[in-house]
Amino acid sequence: MKIRSVELTNFRKFVGTFRVDCIGDNVNVLVGRNELGKSTLLEAINAAIFEKAKSTAAHVKAFRHLANQTVPEVKLAFDVDGKSWLIHKRFAGQAGKAMLSCSDQRLFEDEAAEAELQRLLGFSGGRSGGEPGIWGTLWVQQGQSFGDVELNEQAQRTMQGCLEAQVGLVTGGTRGQKIPKAVRDALDALRGARGPRGRFKDAVDKLSDAKQQVIDLEAKRQAVFQFMEDLGRNKHDLKQELDGWDENAHRLELEGERTKRTVAVTRAAEVGSARSAAKLALERATQARKLVDDRVKAVEELRPLEASLSELGAQNDAALAAQADAQVAVSKGEAKLADLRIKTTQNAERTRKLERVRNVVTLSAEATQHQHVIDTSAALELERQHLGEMIGAIAATDEGVTRIEEAVTECAAADAAMSAVATTVSFAVHDDARDSILVDGNAIAASASSMPIMGKTTVAIARVGTITIEPQIKNRGALLARREAAVQEMKDALQAAGVESLAAARAATAQRKEHVRRLSDIGKELARLVPGDKSKKLAPGLDALRSHLSELRGRLKVDMKACELTEIPAESALARDIQENLDDGARLEAEIKTADAEMAGPADVLLQAEKKLRQVRERMAGLNGTIESKKADLAASRTSGSDEQLASAAEALEREAVVADTLLIEKEREEGESLEAIDARIKRLERAASNHHQSIASLSNEVTRLTALIEANEGAGVEEMLLGAEAERDRLTNTIAEFHEEADVLQLLLDTLETAEGEAKTRYLAPVVSRVEPYLKMLLPGSNIVLDENLQIAALQRSGQREDFEVLSGGTKEQLAVLTRLAFAELLLGQGRPATVILDDALAFSDDERIESMFDVLMRAGENVQIIVLTCRKRLFTRLGASPLEIRAAS
Amino acid sequence: MKFIHSSDLQIGKAFGYFVPEVANILQDARQAVVRTLGEAAVEAGATAVLIAGDIFEKQQMSQQTLGRAIENMRSFSTVQWHLMPGNHDHVRESGLWDRLARSQLPANVSLHVRPGAVQIADDDGAPVFLLPAPLRFTSSVDDLTAYMNDDPTPEGAIRIGMAHGSIQGFGSEGDASNYVAPTRADEAGLVYLAMGDWHRQIKVNDRCWYSGTPEPDQFKLPPNAVTSLCNGGSALLVEVNRSRMVPSVTPILTGRHQWHRIERTLTEDSQINSLETQLRALNSDLSELVIDLRVEGVLSLSGRKAFEEQIVQGVGTAFRAMRFDDSGLALNPTEQDLDDIDRAGFVRVAADRLRLIAADASNGARAHTAAQALKRLYVEHLRQGARS
């Protein structure tokens, strides 16, 4: 079909008659500003073909001019199958008129014209007007070009008819289309993506419940059977327990055992007694035997001890000889040392004397000083002067007494030391001869006496001559010096105290203490006048000072007297004397050290000899003690019995022990079963009875319990319920298997149908796709278009990537939609059907580059298909190169 | 003395392969047969009914099931019921029989749970002794009837044995166990040995019979069967006397339902009509029938459709129940079948493909599915055609 001209009279906005003619075979473009009436032109073309002239429909009535409402008319000239046609319609409702004339002179009016038009252009008619069908797709109204190519049912049928004519029958027709849906519905009702549905799911759910019920009932069934088995066993056990027990026999047996126990207790006491007796006898015999053994042992022990004592006696004699030899050497040294020490003593005496003189000088100085103080307070001192003098007159003090006591003690100690080592000379002479004997010129005190001698002593015997005894005493010199020093000290102490004896000193001291006590009372008053001097133990107070002075003077007087001084010597002369005396002392000390060193060797030998002697004597004394002690023990022991008596007693006791043991064995043999064994048996029998009674009670309880449990469960008929549950489970299992099979069958059927249908559609879409592809290459090289079974664009494939149509840009969508329309038109033409493409304001969204490509596409398509482009974009579309059209007022 | 000999009532048995409604009816029939036995006894003038084991299906039955059976027995006051445990309801401590014994049993119901001769009647001065051999376990190695040889009864007494198990060396039905010597009746001086366990009625010898189950419960045909009628459905009326003559044994029908097992091979669509005729001829009242129908062979799609309509949806619905197995029935779609579906188009392509898969014997399961799919497609296509 090719449209040649369109003429509108009083149509919509057009008042009067306007024409567009000279429409060419290929691409035509009508450029006009907005509101020119381009869309109205398309509407008029539609109206001429599809709207019935007599239509009273509202949208047909709307063709009238808005203002003048005159009858609109449209004339459309077109060529089909090599003939020229003109359709002229006046839209006047019931008075409307349609006329179709053909170049072959045929003329059709009104309904005939409408029918012929339908036949020519292949659309179906309705009561009010035709269904545009595929024309609705090819003629794109303003604002609709960019969407997908939507084919209504009629248009689809047209295209399918067209395609099937080309590729053969591929679909199953109307019924064929419904089958996959029905199968899918059936399958969906049965099984979804997430598993079974509907009745199938119900069955699966119920099977799960049924299986659980079977498990529960099976467990319950087993439990009841277990109760039955347990009950049977318990009854059997109970019967055995009762059958195997004789209460009376058990009681008698227990009583018998208790009687046995009483007898056993008595026997056990007898055995215990016998055991004690045997034990005692054994102990006594053992003790007696031990006494015998000890005595023999003691006698035997004495013999080696006495031999050792004898040996020690010999050793003692040897040691005494060695001691005598050493003593001689030591005595020589000691004589020398004694001389030196006498000199040292004299020097010391001189030292002490000089010290006293120095004290006197010091006292004198102090007294002089104190006198000055006392003179100042003479009045105060007067009262106590006398007392002070009296105290001062008594030289004896506590210290003096102590000194005298110590000197007395030392003298006694020195005497004792001397007498310890002195050689004792004993005399035994007739009384009438006593006067004939003089010891150191003195007569002996008694006819029989003994005297110790330390030094060389001469015993003169009238008419006989003299015997000189010179004891060799070690340290004799030192001992003598000690005694002399002690005697001298005592003399000095007595002298210092101004007394003759210790007793006089003690009495004088006591007197003096009394004076001091009295002086102290007065001193408290003098303290206020005289501060006292702690360093000199001088109490505060004038009295004290006076006393002190008097004391000093008293002492000075005594000291001067003692020192035999008439006047106080000069201090320098005194110092010289003291120094000389000290020098002498040092010299003597050095000489003593030398003499000591010389005597060290002999003294050590003597010491060793004495040590040896002492050791021997100590051992002898110890051994002697042991021997004496043992002898004493033995003697004491023998007083209680002789050795023979002792042995005899032991044997008697041993015999007694044997007798006691024999008696014990006999008792033990007679004892019989032990008490422990009988007790254990009694305990066992008692426990057995207790166990028996407990067992009876326990089994009876269990029987009662199990019987109750069974009776409680049996009414339910667990096994019968189980049979029912198992039947239900089996039924459901079968049902589910059937559902599975049905679903598998439906799935296979659906898969097979869909595969076949998909293949068929691919085949029948191929002609459309093959017509789109050349244009697509021009527009988007390397791309493919994907159409769905409804001939709609599903996607675009670029570089192997699929892009769904919906996500493409508006421009691309519009371009693809135009291409597809061109392909449809070509396909229709190829099948000898009329097709013209009209695009009203299409490609509005295309960019400059793309629109150039689209122009190329349109021009190429225009070689086969008549294309009419309506646009307001004059400048742009001048590049299309299409034949220009104009709307002109008819002349 | 006349008595009815029956066994294997197995009251409470479930029938899992039928829908619950049918299964309930079949279960109910097993209860009802007690009354049938009672009525038969009364009608024949029999004074006792001996049930040789398996009165109940299991040990733990509901009170309703037990009570109903016993109450049915009670109602026949002139008839003494002698019940003995079998392998399904064997004796066990505190089990079903203890429970029955504890219940208020009617005087006309006797339980025989221990071996040993028990006098059950006096037949004109001759004491009648029953020697039961109850089962204490599901299966026993020993011949429990052995004791009957030595168990004394008074001179002139009529000795009737009752046992449950398999007669040794006599056939081999099912899992044979609890063997009984075939010569037991003679050896033990029994005038009659009433056997239970086998559901088929069998005469072992003149003095030893299996009564079979009084109500059929399985699709099992007797050996060398000439009809499709399955085992069970009858009891025995037995008359004995002191003369030790061969007892008079008469089968009596008791079953409410008749069970048939029918196997047919269909190779032509026309055979469907003959099958339908055969089924309809089985009984005047088809609702008394329980059918196990197994068909094999090959049918076209149209034949299969006719089979469904005439047999499954037709006569099949008249039966009390029908178990149907068509796993051996293959489909062989003809060209006409396929043309009926469509002459061209993708549906026809799919049909052709399914036919190819269905014909591929190398994958039986898939071939079967494909055949079913093809059948479905055929039906669906016709259905859509009918709608459009």
Automatic annotation (TrEMBL), chain A:
Residues 3-879 form the RecF/RecN/SMC N-terminal domain. Keywords: Coiled coil. The keyword Hydrolase does not apply. It holds the Pfam family SMC_N. Transmembrane segments: none annotated. InterPro entries: P-loop_NTPase (IPR027417), RecF/RecN/SMC_N (IPR003395). Residues 200-255, 606-742 form a coiled coil. PANTHER family: DOUBLE-STRAND BREAK REPAIR RAD50 ATPASE, PUTATIVE-RELATED. This is RecF/RecN/SMC N-terminal domain-containing protein. It comes from Bradyrhizobium nitroreducens. The lineage of its organism: Bacteria, Pseudomonadati, Pseudomonadota, Alphaproteobacteria, Hyphomicrobiales.
From TrEMBL, chain B:
InterPro entries: Calcineurin-like_PHP, DNA_Repair-Maintenance_Comp, Metallo-depent_PP-like, UCP033093_metalloPase. One of its GO terms (molecular function) is hydrolase activity. This is Calcineurin-like phosphoesterase domain-containing protein. Residues 1-155 form the Calcineurin-like phosphoesterase domain. SUPFAM superfamilies: Metallo-dependent phosphatases (SSF56300). It comes from the Bacteria.
